[in-house]
Amino acid sequence: MTVPPRKPLGNPLGTPLGSAGVLAKALLLGLALALAIWGAFPLVEHRDWLALAVLVAATVLIFWGYLSPRRIPAKYLLPGTVFLIAFQVLPILYTVSTAFTNFGDGHRGSKESAIHSIEEASVSPVPGTPDYRLNLAVPQGSSPADGPLVLVLTDPATGKERAARADTGTVTDLPSRATLTVLTDPQAARRGAELAALRIADGPGHIRTEGLERAYVGAPARSYDASSDTLRDATTGTVWKADGTTGTFVTDDGERISSGWRVGVGLGNFADVLTNPTISRYFGQTLLWNIAFAVLTVLITFVLGLFVALSLHHPRMRGRWFYRALLILPYAMPAFAMLMVWADMFNKDFGLINRLFGLDVNWLGEPWTARAAVLLVQLWMGYPYMFLVATGALQAVPDEVKEAARVDGAGRWTILRKVTLPLVLVALFPLLIASFAFNFNNFNAIYLTTAGGPFPPDSPMAGATDLLITYTYRLAFGGQGAQYGLAAAISLFIFVIVAVISLVSFRRARAMEEVNG
Amino acid sequence: MNEHRARSRAPDRAANPGLRRPCALGAALLGAVLALTGCGGDAGSGGSASARPVVTVWADDQRAAALKDFARTFGEKYGARVSVQAVSKDLQTNFVTASQAGEGPDVVVGANDWIGNLVQNGAIDPVRLSTSQRDSLEPRAVKAVTFNGQTYGMPYALENVALIRNTALVPDAPATIEEAVAVGQRLKGEGKVSEIMSVPVGQAGDAYHAYALYSQAGGYLFGRDAQGEYNPADLGLGTEASVRALEKFRALGEKGVGALKRTIGPDNAIPTFTTGKAPFLISGPWAVPDIKKAGIAYDIQAVPRFEGTGGKGGPFIGVQAFYVAAKAKNKALAQEFVAQAGGSERTAIALTEANPRPPALKAALAHFKDSNPDLGKFLAAGADGVIQPAIPQMNVVWDPFGKAEAAIIGGAPVRSTVVSLTRAVAGQIGLDPDKAVRFAGAPATTNHPAAGKD
Asked: Does one domain contain both B126 and B198?
């Protein structure tokens, strides 16, 4: 007997690839390299060296991992790790870092850009100066594309012309245009960026342009003084002092300019969540309903889904596939649209539900009926999912186990209670926890149906069906623009709450597994 | 426009429990690649003088389409590439974010109540209107784009709500709200309609539509200083006049005559009128296409006064305007685009035809005098209106004011509701909540001792 020659040891994927495989590999790696080079150009142009370093490192890593046949684990770990970092770790790090700043509307950029925009916004024409008609020109002989710009300013009242030269920065009377070449519209348009940035001193202000055909002498009323770190309005005499802790300019009597800048506020946002009465006053009641909402949603959808799955699990049932397809329908419909349709159906006067059942229930107008309404919607939208997973789990329960129970004399009900259900539950418990975590932050389910309402007359801030996420969304984005810093701090709080609840549940699940498994 | 305010903000997230689709990963990867190409494509279009200049305009769908014609003419005249891009969702937020990142457009088209926020974020530059430009525009439109003494946009259209009535049911214009309610009650009694009137309220209230009635009943939101600019320190919510105005809402509400109800909201107010279920509708020019399509005979008038009030109130007047981005790449060209787009009669007519609202340009309004008299009627209905405040503090008022309105229409006691509302708003805009409540006999507020101290 001859022993067949042994194949070389190793992972089957480590074996030499076929020619198609080599080609695919070369193509994919080439594509990765092309993408990297393509991405590198703008990074170099913007001098974003950190991002460039990351790009180079990632590319090198890809080639290191895939060019060698020996690095099998890396091939599998690399994509997963990259995605984990890109879509989980980075957003979390960004959220955490934002939570310690005042980032939001009015506090988006740097102090310099705030000062710049405040000064620019205060520019107005110097009284007594004309609203000039503007023509753009270059000295005769210069190229219209890059010759030094000359602004020909015509006083509409007198018709007299002056010339403001960009290269010398001087403004002189212009008796004749003979020494100049006046630009055409397209030529002028090409130099628009340069023109808008041009500031030629003239008397108490600077020649400034508005578009391509108008100019005026403008001066800013507000100016920044770096030595005292203050901003002063020359017309009113008001002085604002830069406050580096809040990132705003503020007067002695507390008046602030709404354009501020982004600064670190340490634990300020977290302290705000805990101490601000508009937040903390409703936090407890909202949290309570939030937990109830998530737990009840999981519970009712699971009970109904399991019940339906059990009823359709009977092997002798006819037309099972038809019922199953029908039951999955709500799951297949776009949730976004369905939520809005449901909100409409719960309308007291015009809604389908009241009319169909001849009721006169103000579903969305009373706290408890509104809560029932959102749970009903959740039940309708959520049970097909539970039905699907429960069907899967039921099919995975081995028939031998049930057979053994039957032989031992267990009845149908006992088998279900003592054998089938525990096995299904063990399999599904992680899914139920995931579903809980999802529903805890199920923004759309509330926002698109009740928008958090109804609102008790004494609190326009917190409604009866508000979840923490809808409530804080209103706080962070509903008022004076977006407050990303505060929103990030609140989402960290919510993260901690969900994480703790999930962790405790998982522990209990493990305990259950040990008992049953 | 405000009826779209509430629902346009929901982030796109799947609502089903436990949904985790593998294709999300693919989509995210695709997104990353697209983002990369986006960065690459824009670079270098700014500086060099020989490159063909570019003007990028962001507007909503309808307006973007109406601007195409002017964009082409302008581009030909200046040898520029004008790209008009439709941004259908969250235009203001997207603009601020993109602008901060240096990836924003050069020109943006939007409502005048954006100005406060755009200015505080340094996203737009003043647009200096010449004397002749000012003279060619409706004065209220110019006033609406004025903020902190500067004009920040080139206005091109106005919008405000009016009382629209079904002339087949109600031939004569009612002089007062009470008269309208009496007519509506009679028609309801005769079985011709099922609702007295259709006013968008909804469970969360609708501050924008409510304001027309609120101001006709004598209430105001913010006072104005000697120059006519809004004064955020004078919060009108907590005044006796505000209480009296909201008492009228309660009387018209569900526990009263039932003319105002929370079951009619932004989504079904116009259909309720176009199906003939209500003889009156409070809405704006955006409702007219649907009314025409339904074949309802209608007429437009100002929201009438209440009996026994001076009738000095009016609706909010909103203005649509062109803005120049502070970070525009070719700012002079962007400024020229804005000035000419707003000053062009042909463009104003195209914009009005695409989206029938009274144009700000007097010449364009005159053009529609005979062909579309509705525009003039809406403008007249806003004759006593006030400019929708562009001050950032106004953003704080919308939501709580709407909710208080809804609660009062549902039958909640007025005084205590007004106290809670005033304190909540005052706390958020940095006023002393105790001093903001300014009417006699205000209910004791000891149950929220620390409210608003932040």
From this structure: no
